[in-house]
Amino acid sequence: MLSAGCAEDLLPGESVVGVELAAEVVYGGANDRLGQGLAWNGSSLAAAAPGRPAVLVDGELVEGPGNWVGYWGDALVRVGPGGGTLDGEALGEVEALGRASALAASSAGLYYASASGIERYGGLRAVVAGVTALAADDLRVVALVCGADGDCVVEAFDVGLVALGPVLVDGAPLAGGAEGIVVIQAGVVCVGDPELELDDGAGRVRCEDGRELAGGQGDHIGRGIAAGYAAGVFNRWVMPPRARVWPIDGGEVLVVEVGAEGQVLTLAGDETALFIGAPFHPRGGQPSGAVFTVPR
């Protein structure tokens, strides 16, 4: 189901990306699903287009693995069902990368979740069950680990995958939720709980420095977190239907007007720009996908 909104019906404090708020928009081709994954290293943007499959790198579409993108330092990692590449060269561990339930990259390495735990590409492993999301920076690797009871907490490791214990906030483990993501922003861990068990769940983002944000009814935020913002899905509970991108520290709420009901947004960026991926944004009646660049 495709929906479109009208800017004049927005709530106070909301601004439409590309209408009230200046933005550059790049659209994919028919069924590309451009924007299903985003990666930004401070100077280059990579946007996955798994329907082709391909990756849009600084405006140039490059065929090949396109399900997941990340930067291992300045080198672009691309992963798809058939394996992965590092700056265009084929990676080993093909089957493991293709089946990984979560991946993360930093200058310290490429990490992925396997059936036996967390692996660092080329060796090293942490045995931990139930990893659903990963993030990494130069100092830590963090994993959202969900138990059979549905409870999810963030566990930390050093870059060599030595366990550091749960990430704590106010003395308690930092908790997330099913299909939430975990990120490290300027050294601070934040995790999402989209509240998918509730049809109209607002979703929530919690950070280890005590910050916390709740979305609006049906937003299910916590499925995208980056650059101080949090996003969830294209929301059928608001009129007009739209997707909202919430600033974690408060301020103007950004709105993506056109999308498919339940479409998950992806985010990337830093203090210079925010990138929003809308992989089921319709173009010519097809899920072409779109990437919005919002200068900051």
Description:
By secondary structure, the protein is mostly beta strands. Helix content is 2%, strand content 48%. It is built from one helix and 36 strands. The chain has one helix at 94-99; strands at 2-3, 14-16, 24-27, 38-40, 45-49, 54-57, 60-63, 68-72, 75-80, 83-86, 89-90, 103-106, 109-114, 117-120, 125-126, 131-136, 140-146, 152-158, 163-166, 168-169, 172-173, 175-176, 182-185, 188-193, 204-207, 212-214, 224-226, 229-231, 243-247, 253-256, 259-260, 266-269, 273-278, 282-283, 286-287, 290-295. A hairpin with a 2-residue loop joins strand 20 (168-169) and strand 21 (172-173).
Question: What does this entry show, briefly?
Answer:
With 296 residues, this protein is an all-beta fold.
Task: Name the features.
single chain; 296 residues; mainly beta; 5-stranded mixed sheet; 5-stranded antiparallel sheet; 1 helix; 36 strands; 2% helix; globular; disordered N terminus
* Uncertain stretches: 1-8
Helix content: under 10%
User: How would you describe the shape?
Assistant: globular
The total count of helices amounts to 1
Secondary structural class: mainly beta
Determine Rg (CA atoms, Å). Answer: 18 Å
Largest sheet: 5 strands, mixed
Mean pLDDT score, rounded?
93
- Give the N-terminus to C-terminus distance in angstroms: 32 Å
Q: Per DSSP, what share of the residues sits in E-state strands of 2 or more residues? A: over 45%
For the secondary structure, the number of strands is 36
Order of neighbouring strands in the sheet with most strands: 2-30-29-28-27
